[in-house]
């Protein structure tokens, strides 16, 4: 059967547009013929380039050639592509009334696609692509590539298209909207570890660097993704962009706008262009003439090309600017002089008014302090706000700044080198966090420049596309759920609809785990200076064992990834490997390497033989990363990507094999370890209730683990004998030996509540008892005997199973072991405010959901009376068995206040107490900020009073909109240290 591709173009996330009625079919190639692409040779070079790309795309699908021609043809079917005012063919269609361009003529980067009958003499039908400017035309042509099934990642991720014999399009007449953000692009940064090595040693050895050949492929990718801007690679491993004269010509041919980072003023690369031997010190207060000469040279060189000149100045190597006097006022004054001089250079060399030349000012790190201290900035310069390097935007435009003619933008990181720790290997930035921060920026009118620091491009493919899709059309991303929809459509496009939901779930879970702790942060070490691995905060003996829970989550991810990989079509397996398999397996194995090393050290202290097994599993995980990275570099696509992937950027401790403990041989014996205890069970105390599991609570249906483990070499048998029929154990007997994987067994103990004797029937709970020391009338005791040979070890079991009338029909949060744990999105009630309402963001936070008050532009409420009357409120019903002063801990996403006068605040009270304001804001690069970004969590606590045992309500009010609440813990004195809050204590 002849394969045929027919695409019907309708408004969709990856498409467009303002559609007019009516479908027209147009055949590009079939079994006998193929069309041509007619362009005007005087049109912009990018129109020819895009046409050639499309022609090659058609050939990749059909093995049939489509010619790009510049003279009229007598073919029946022709594609006509051109720019209004630059293409004689398009202008002829306009003048003859064949097409109407009134809606978008003269506008920024818009295009139309429509079928026109008898467009020009000798042509029966044409598929016409009209651009309002040169990039609009290129985007329109490459939209045809999307329509016929070509992924933007066809080359960069080897998304091999399906072969078809016939390609036809059923096209609605469409007109694209203008982009949501004017300049949209990427920053190639920290390229030392992949992109530069790959280009120099593999793709462009003739240059030995990232040169014009490499940039041409990058620019093609940007056009396919509807981007228009790049900040070129700038580390010392790479020669400056302008040191290769052809680079700027290639950029202009592809219609790509060149900009530079906060540390590279006036399109210069200080990191590699400043030479102390001949130029002196890089200090404006003592050496301004030489610095201005460099700026002048660059403006002369670039004035005829599209560029964005970064104004201001920082020091060398991404450091603060050096000035004579170390005070903020002097720094501000000098920076103002720098900007004045830069604008004079622009005026002199371009013969244009500076307010007509695109310029950017990036208040990054210490420069933000200068700006906040009163630096005067010409209002036509675009303010490019930055995140704190970890995904949280430090500041956005206030209402006055939003009036500036230069507007505002954002420089955002999904890759970073620096304190408190790098993340240069994998893409570990949660896409919903990126959506939340960029949608916030858009809401605060930062719509002129969006730049993503994407490191080496790979493996940041998905987040790059999401970032640029948002910049292209933010109207598709009004809700957090849009990110999941985007991922599903992306996965369907790349791998087919039959696996798209599975892949989305896989990536969502991978992102959730990385949000809790990025893979690159799993050694609990830091940089600048580099420290050795530290002690993990994950507990191994409370709350079900956080280390083991994370191990299971990553094992499930690996199994799911490998299962999907087996079923991916052959022509997309390499793409799946790059876009999904390697990033997920890499993250999983780096986690497992450290998680197993934590278990190795913990179990070795108890003399467990399993310590050696955990150590080997840690080594195996490390080895797997080596193997996969080697495959990526040397075997994937026959070595196409050799040198692109480094598994240990900067050779930091987190990427090394951890030091491991080894348990030496001894006589075989049995050991027990209980949840809630760091040390093993003391076997010297025989037939005693001294070792007891935490109390089982019927209201929360608790369950706990017991580890039965082997000590020494040999074989031991064991049997667990419950002393009551209501005690359930996952396994009751077994044998331990030194065969790998059989050195220990984790048992789960639960309760058959239907068989447990009831405690006293009370109308209310007892007042203020300690949950671990419950009076006998409310607690039922029994035990489990563990028998091994002639040894019996007794483990006490206590259950809390009273009948309280007040709790019979109760549904809400309930105290368990001296605390109440709540996921913030699971409120009992919510109340609307006068200006804002609570909404749930999906796909972010420890629980994969957070709750926030929107819109972010709503007025902050700081007066306590006003808070209670006007602010939206959340209410959480809970039941406490204890009373007195409690510690209410709130965990929020560690965002920053959008501008001066705003905070990151909410207000808290229990019952009718006066609200207490809680502020999550951090300042600068404080130790608190470091811990927050390493953990993606900001935890603040406030003291409250629970005045009696019984029912209560926790109330949380908005003070500042946009605060994202993740988890809540009401600690009545029983919470033990853990990385995350315990699971919810909820009675249904």
Automatic annotation (TrEMBL):
Residues 1-19 form the signal peptide. Residues 812-984 form the Gylcosyl hydrolase 115 C-terminal domain. Keywords: Hydrolase, Signal. It holds the Pfam family Glyco_hydro_115. InterPro entries: GH115 (IPR031924), GH115_C (IPR041437), GH115_sf (IPR042301), Hex-like_dom2 (IPR029018). One of its GO terms (molecular function) is hydrolase activity. This is Glycosyl hydrolase 115 family protein. The lineage of its organism: Bacteria, Pseudomonadati, Bacteroidota, Flavobacteriia, Flavobacteriales.
